[in-house]
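[job 0412] stage=complex_fold ligand=guanosine-5'-monophosphate status=START
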Amino acid sequence: MKAAADRAIVITGPSGAGKNTLISAVRERIPELAYAVSATTRPPRKGERDGVDYHFLSPDEFAERVERGDFVEHESFSGYHYGTLRSEIEGKLAKGTSVMLDLEVKGARNLHRNLPGAYCVFVQPPSVEVLKSRLKKRGTESAEQFRRRTDTALIELKAKDEFDATVVNDRLGDAVDELTGLVRGALKSAG
Ligand code: ADP
Ligand code: 5GP
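[job 0412] stage=complex_fold status=DONE, emitting structure tokens
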């Protein structure tokens, strides 16, 4: 199982740091890398597709699946539940497919405990001001969600040294190059 866990790549960091953007770009460059679609109780944003961006569940459905033991890890974030389904990673890892996950900090920490071989990269914004302006520009969050997410970001930023590597997402092209290099390196050493 250790060799399989070595093929899990976790991308973490605060909301608005650029995790989604970087994951999409790295997956274009490393097409054999699968993505673990998380479950969430957050309502879909415009353009998000069920089963592609997330498995969108009601709070009752989410609780039932927690009860059934369907999650490798699950956390509350900004008033909603998010979790990694076993079905999204275990089969892929067992077949030798590498899987990328997008997790907030508590979940990344937890996954590291459950899958000790996982490689975790923290995505850091150049500054809190830049983080706020990107999140605002993304235009997806209510004032209340914006406040909750940026408050949480201040706590999450303190955790950056807990992970295997940090990528500062300043110029996007540079961050994509750096993350692609780190992921390739981690997969190479996983064999
Ligand atoms: P996360 O998944 O961490 O919440 P996103 O990938 O959604 O973050 O990025 C937040 C916003 O910042 C998005 O609108 C995205 O297009 C933008 N963004 C991401 N990286 C950069 C960058 N390097 N420069 C400028 N804008 C960026
Ligand atoms: P968003 O609502 O912006 O899509 O996601 C909010 C936060 O939840 C992000 O920081 C993202 O990394 C995190 N997240 C997404 N899926 C999961 C998951 O399965 N588990 C955990 N712990 N966090 C997740």
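The radius of gyration is 16 Å.
[job 0412] exit 0
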